[in-house]
From TrEMBL:
Source organism, top-level taxon: Eukaryota
Top-level taxonomy: Eukaryota, Sar, Alveolata, Perkinsozoa, Perkinsea
GO molecular function, one term: metal ion binding
Listed name of the protein: Phosphoglucomutase-2
GO cellular component terms, A-Z: nucleus
Species per Swiss-Prot/TrEMBL record: Perkinsus olseni
Domain Alpha-D-phosphohexomutase alpha/beta/alpha: 63-169
UniProt key word GTP-binding: no
Length: 229
């Protein structure tokens, strides 16, 4: 456990200066209040009996991967013949079992995906990066170098809590193009609309939404496929 997200009374995540004010309060109260530690003893009579507790992680992981396979895997036979090579980094977070589990379930050959081992497992200190956000400059240097060493085509990356994703594509001159969030959203949106079109889904049932800070590329795609933007 390495942190949490804080929401204000308006239901949105906090913004400056509230974040600095909270940080200052924490700094002023580094010494625990009297009797505060008593609240940390959560081993109740029920929890002390470990036979009455379960860890749902494995079941949840299996269920998630299985559900994603049935909902999203369109071309398992083509996946098996994939000749592209990927390097994946979990950015010292929790994404590894999900990313590699999905790739395996979807049928991609094991040798087409390699993992940045130094960043494969959770590390609360994030010792291999200056700032653990894959969108930050320099955060993917280790992944790119491994991809060059292994002659991989793409770098795939999650942030530590695996709710962000980015990708880099190797160019002909050996440099890397890191896709922006806008570009990735356009690629994913085009794929979803194309798959719906091929399955004969009524385009009026294809709703396309983007954030206010995104371009209108998804609108252009929606117009092309006849969707609702």
């Amino acid at each position: 456990y390495n942190g949490f997200k804080v929401y204000g009374d308006n239901g949105a995540q906090i913004i400056p200066p509230v974040d600095s004010e909270i940080e200052a309060k924490i700094a002023d109260n580094l010494t625990p209040w009297k009797d505060a530690l008593d609240l940390l003893d959560l081993d109740t009579c029920l929890l002390k009996d470990k036979s009455k507790t379960i860890d749902p992680y494995d079941d949840a992981l299996y269920t998630y991967i299985d559900q994603m396979y049935h909902e999203l895997c369109r071309f398992p036979d083509l996946n098996k013949d994939c000749h592209l090579k990927f390097v994946y980094t979990a950015m010292q977070g929790v994404g590894l079992p999900f990313a590699t589990g999905l790739m395996e379930k979807f049928g991609f050959p094991k040798d087409c995906v390699s993992v940045v081992e130094a960043q494969a497992h959770p590390d609360p200190e994030f010792s291999t990066v200056a700032f653990p956000n894959p969108e930050e400059k320099g955060a993917l240097d280790m992944s790119k170098q491994q991809a060059l060493d292994e002659d991989a085509d793409y770098v795939l990356a999650n942030d530590p809590d695996a709710d962000r994703f980015t990708s880099c594509e190797k160019q002909k001159d050996g440099s890397w193009h890191q896709f922006t969030g806008d570009e990735l959203g356009t690629i994913f949106g085009d794929w979803q609309l194309l798959m719906a079109h091929r399955r004969g889904v009524d385009p009026k049932n294809c709703l396309v939404i983007n954030s206010t800070v995104s371009s209108k590329m998804l609108k252009a795609l929606s117009d092309y496929y006849g969707g609702v933007y």
